[in-house]
Amino acid sequence: MNQEKNQEKLAEILGPHFNNIANDGLFVLKALGLPKGAKVLDVGTGAGNFAIFLASQGFDVLTGEPATDTTHYAGKDWAASAEKAGVRDKIRFEAFNASKAPFETETFDAVFFFGVLHHVDEAERAATLSEALRVVKKSGTVVFFEPRKETLEKLWLTDPTHPLAANPSDYLTDKSVTEQKLQGAMMDVFVYRKG
Known about the structure:
Rossmann fold; alpha/beta; seven-stranded mixed β-sheet
């Protein structure tokens, strides 16, 4: 099944919002050039849409969020959606706090935060970025998707308390890390690579 047909099928299963996620995701994956079967970490599971998108692209996905997260974005039945999408076998869930990631150094080919950093307590954001850089391989990338102004305005219609977007660069302490900024359709994307 070609990529476009696969995305249409997934949008039928997961809802039209999936197309927005997939479009920005595909845009970034083209820039990264990750090989099929790459081991990736998806931080902030939520409804599972980004983990499902990554799995649909042929990646081995570990996804997770804190067990203590009680926001309305967390604790969704992502597994049922992944099952319907036919990618449940490509996704594993583990509860964890991103500022104290319980993974070995240089475990993942890429670490993704899709609409997550602005929900992390500001006091933990520098540690969250530092941990992501620690668990990604030397040749890997850490990618943050943060909502653009237009996206925030739409979010505020249903969630008036939704926080402003965060700029990961404000929390970067390692000056050897390179940053690339991309503009997706709904998200600003920050790509970090170890120097």
